[in-house]
Amino acid sequence: AQSVTQPDIHITVSEGASLELRCNYSYGATPYLFWYVQSPGQGLQLLLKYFSGDTLVQGIKGFEAEFKRSQSSFNLRKPSVHWSDAAEYFCAVGNTGGFKTIFGAGTRLFVKA
Amino acid sequence: ETGVTQTPRHLVMGMTNKKSLKCEQHLGHNAMYWYKQSAKKPLELMFVYNFKEQTENNSVPSRFSPECPNSSHLFLHLHTLQPEDSALYLCASSQDRGGNTEAFFGQGTRLTVV
């Protein structure tokens, strides 16, 4: 069975600074990987996804993520954080045998002025 | 506008009450889901419906009863809940049940059991 670990419960960065949110997964085959964002009082919105091909994927709102098979990681990055990026971010892994997408516990991002 | 609408947004209910959560999707998707989101815990998948048929029940207590009358609507009927059932309940839909399918989420119903 697949699993997802987001080691950081919360992270604080200054506006304009770079951001990296960590995600490690466990899955026996090539995984389907996702990053979602949840703003306060809202549902989850997809930022980006990786299925195959180029290991660096671009998403919405200036985010990107890199799949590293050797490290079982799929870290989310943004070169310059905006105050509106403050939210909770979820990494998720889907399997090939039907919908069993598993979500991590989330990382809450705080942005300071 | 996410295309997935949940009502009500907030609900307070006593442990002896019966209430229902409603979810509606306008995306033409075939699969719908209920998730429970509790503080400091990962999202818990509760139920999966595909073409109106329930395909997944992740050991959810019987006090939660889902209903999917058609591919666009999903309900979660609640009765004799416990305080620990207080959480954000999220509905989601996707084109199909594939593991590579993006899920679209509603804004959730914040449930408080008193």
Summarize the structure.
The complex is a heterodimer of chains A (113) and B (114). In chain A, 0% of the residues lie in helices and 51% in strands.
How would you characterize this protein structure?
- The complex is a heterodimer of chains A (113) and B (114).
- Chain A is built from no helices and 12 strands.
- Chain A is mostly beta strands and 113 residues long.
- In chain A, the strands form 3 sheets. In chain A, strands 2, 5, 6, 10, 11 and 12 form a 6-stranded mixed beta sheet that branches. Chain A has a 4-stranded antiparallel beta sheet with strand order 3-9-8-7, with no helix packed on it. Chain A has a two-stranded antiparallel sheet with strand order 1-4.
- In chain A, a hairpin with a 7-residue loop joins strand 10 and strand 11.
- The model of chain A has no long low-confidence stretch (mean pLDDT 91).
- The mean pLDDT of chain B is 91.
- In chain B, strands 2, 4, 5, 6, 9, 10 and 11 form a 7-stranded mixed beta sheet that branches. In chain B, strands 1-3-8-7 form a 4-stranded antiparallel beta sheet, with no helix packed on it.
- In chain B, 0% of the residues lie in helices and 56% in strands.
- With 114 residues, chain B is mainly β.
- Classes of the chains: A mainly beta (113), B mainly beta (114).
- Chains A and B meet through strand 5, strand 6 and strand 11 of A and strand 5, strand 9 and strand 10 of B.
